[in-house]
Each structure stands twice: as structure tokens, then as C-alpha cells.
Amino acid sequence: MLAGLLGFVLGPLGLLYTSTLLALGSWILVLLAWPYLVGAEWRMWGLRAAAAGLGFWWAEYRPPLNGWPRLLMTLDRPGKRKALLAGLGLLAATSALSRVVTYTRTSSPVMLPTIAPGEVVRVRLRFDPARSVQRGTLVVYQLPSSGGRALSRVVGLAGDRIELRRGLLFVNGQPSDDPARIEVLRAAQCLDERLVLNNQARLGHSGAVQVPTGHVFVLADNRADLYADSRSFGPVPLEQVVGLVQPRRQSRALKAEQCRLEGSP
């Protein structure tokens, strides 16, 4: 019973009480399944229940390990000291991985049609901004005003002249939007040509805005509503870019009601 309780409360770490081999295997499976668990509370409860059932079953009906490699048999019952060391190792490995890559579930239509609300995206946290941040890169960055974080597309680098005309992006005087993405937005009436900031590269600027050194210009893919991006607060310092995002899919079909924030007309 204790084995099941520890599995439910601590997940793979709780399984160390039963078997280090079982805990290691469960930890690897959780890592592989993590993109499907993020932000889904019922799945996390399901994971806890599965760990509890696995711990109870292993403790009560331990499968025979005869003929298994000696290392695996040792890992099954390593003793308290080795189990503690294994637990610390799992915690250290988890902490190290969380500093390199993480997953997050989006909640806003800001990046439609590229990323839908509720979609889980992979965010790389270790990167060289000078090399990795280019035009078209999807980034997570700190908002200058609130200190919160937002997701947008980098559309301009240092020295670029950015302009918006009727919702369309021009960089150094040249059209720079992905035609397929714009076609999807137009078909769903998700490109508001009358929106003031869809005709200004920055709040209060009627012409082009030049991106200063050490900054990038970020812009939402969705142009149906006013979303937090460089149109409202200007270019973002590179040091405030905290992650690189890799979308899973290309532009998808939309409906007009998907494109706006709740409460927008």
C-alpha cells in the first residue's frame, strides 16, 4: 500500500521505494510523454494513478528477474543509500533538462494560423541569439511593460526598416509575409486592414520604423486583433528573447471566430 501511495504522490521518484529499475524506466517514459501532459490536468492525475498502480503491483507481484543481467537485478533492489543517490541523480537530470528545453501549452490565438490555442510547443532555452534569432524565427520574449512572457515571430533585425500597410508587413520596402499564411488569414477574414496598428509599425509612427542595434522587431501572425507585439511597444532587446519555438505544423484552415480575443467585437 505504501508503494502505491508514494507512486501517487511523487510519481517516478516515489517508485524508488519499490524499485530503482522501475523508477528509471518510468522517468524515461514520462520524459517522452511530457509534451502530451503539459497543461492537461486530467492527464497528470492519470499519470499519478498509473504510478500508484505500478508501484503497488510491483511490490505485491514482483516479476521474476531470473536470467536478467546482473546490473538490472542490482537496480531492482539497490538498498536505501543507492536509491537515495538514484533519486538525487533523477532530480539533477530533470533540473538540467529543464534549463535546456521545456514545453508550454499556448492559450492565445496570437500565432494563428501557425500555432493554435491549446497547442503544446517545444521551447529551446539554450541558444546563441546572434546566430539563432533570424527573420521568421518564433520566439518567447519578456514583455517590456509587465515582465510577463509572450510568443511572436521575429520579422526584423537590427538595421531593418519595418512598415505595416493594411495589415501586410514590409521589410526594407519589400513585402515580407508568407503568402500562404496571408491567404489563410484572408480566407477566414482574420486580417483586419482597418486596425490602426495594422497600418503602423509602432504606436504613433505613420511611416517605417528602423530596428536599433541589439534589438528585433516581433509581430503576431494573426492580424485580426491587437496582440502584444512590437506594434505597441517597439523593438525588443535581444537579451529579452528567452526561448526559440519550433511549431509542429504549417498554416492551417481557420474560422473567423477563432482569430479574435474573447470579448473583442
Automatic annotation (TrEMBL):
Cell location: Membrane
Alphabetized Gene3D superfamilies for the sequence: Umud Fragment, subunit A
GO molecular function, one term: signal peptidase activity
UniProt KW keywords: Hydrolase, Membrane, Protease, Transmembrane, Transmembrane helix
Family matches, as InterPro entries: LexA/Signal_pep-like_sf, Pept_S26A_signal_pept_1, Peptidase_S26
Family matches, as Pfam families: Peptidase_S26 (PF10502)
GO biological process, one term: signal peptide processing
Domain of life of the native organism: Bacteria
NCBIfam families: sigpep_I_bact
Name of the protein in question: Signal peptidase I
Organism: Deinococcus arcticus
Gene for this chain: lepB
